[in-house]
Each structure stands twice: as structure tokens, then as C-alpha cells.
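The instructor's notes for this session suggest beginning with a concrete chain rather than abstract definitions. Hand out the sequence below and ask the class to guess, before any prediction is shown, which regions might be ordered.
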Amino acid sequence: MLGTASFANPYEDKAKFRLLPGWTEPDGTRIAALEVVLANGWKTYWRAPGDAGVPPQFDWSASRNLKSVSVRWPQPVVFHQAGMRTIGYENRLILPFVVTPKRKGKPVVLKGVFDLGICKDICVPVHVNLEQLIAPTDAQNQAEIKAALANEPITAARAGVKALSCEMRPSSEDGVMLKVTMQLASLGGREDAAIETGDPLVWATEPKLSRSGKTLTLEMRLVHALGGSFALNRTGLRITLLGGKRSVDIQGC
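After discussion, reveal the predicted structure:
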């Protein structure tokens, strides 16, 4: 059974969506993926979209024989347009996810409701329903999905991050200044970073990166949406470093 939309996508000429059934792992979990094919010049967003954009939302509640779904995000691209910085994907996105069935060895009917933003000169929200029957014996799209998984940011330990430290001080503007330093070899090419605070009401300005040898420094301002002072849970901080050759996922500081 092919993944199909339950109704016509009004932006089908800008973005096409499909569920890829993937394969079953030895532990009974399933590796599948969402495919998004974008028209030339259009993009969609990463889990943290940056200064503007729509963070993607997924609803799997109508699925059958499904215990949980865990999304695995490939390395995104940083875009600068009209004075704003956004983070996402262009051309074609393969977004893998791990499907855990309630009853292993039995088929899973994935029914996903996807709310995503797609942008070129303007941004529009897209609401798509997809359904896919995946059998335990299915083995499809393996090369594409494995390539996307291989492009996922690696852990701090695997990247060799050392001497990680975070310092906070009051800002002359609203919020607080956060300075992150670490020892890490170059990621290749232009280096960038995305900061997630773990609190939906606290956002980070575009980080400023500087490097001296293996010492990488990030500085940014954290601001609460309601203003005033706030407490930051450092274990909830998530720093994604983006480079030309690799990317790194640092959780907690």
C-alpha cells in the first residue's frame, strides 16, 4: 500500500509528501520516513525554525498498532533572507523516524497528520494527512533513509567535545547573555549553531561564533517571551553545531 494523502494538497506544485515504509530492525522497531519534495527555491523548516517560520508538528494518534514514534533529524541548512535567519531544508527532505509497534511482528497502520510551513518569497502553512500500511517484512527505501540517518548530527562524546562550560550574566537589554565555550576540532567550512533552551517561552538570538584553534566560543542573548527575569534549566539546553563536514548535537551544559 502506498502512502497517500487523504485530501488534495493545495500547494502540491510547491511541496509533495509521501511516507516511506522502510524496514524492521532486529528488536522489532521500524525505521520509516517522511519524504518532502520541494519546488525550486522553496524550503521547509527544522524542528527549531529560527527567527521566522513554522516549527513542524506531527500527530500520529489515529494510527493502529502504534506505541510511539521518534523523529530523527538530519543536519539542516541555515538560510539568511530579508534580514532574518531561518533553519531548515530545501529541494528534498527525507525525515526518518523510529516506529515502535504495540505488538511486534504485526503490521502497523501509520496515520500521520503533518502541519509544516513551506517558504519562498512568502510562507504558507501546509496541512497534510498521510496513511501508510507497513508490514514487518517490508524492506523499502533503505539506501535513502540510511543516508538521511548518516547525516544526523553526532553526539558530543563522539565528536570529542571537551571542557564544555556555560556562563550567564545580565544583559544590557532584556534577558541574559549566555557564553558557551568548548574544545572541539573544526567542523569544516563555515561553522554555525542553533540553540534550543528547552523552554518554549525562552528564545535565543542568533549566536555569534568565534574560534581560536580548538577553542570554540558561542555568545547569544536569551529572552523570555513575557519579559522579566527567568530561571534557565541548563540540562534542557540543546546546542546544534553545523559545519561543512559534520554537525554535533550537544545536550545540556
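Then share the key points. The two ends are 45 Å apart (CA to CA). Residues 1-7 have pLDDT under 50 and may be disordered.
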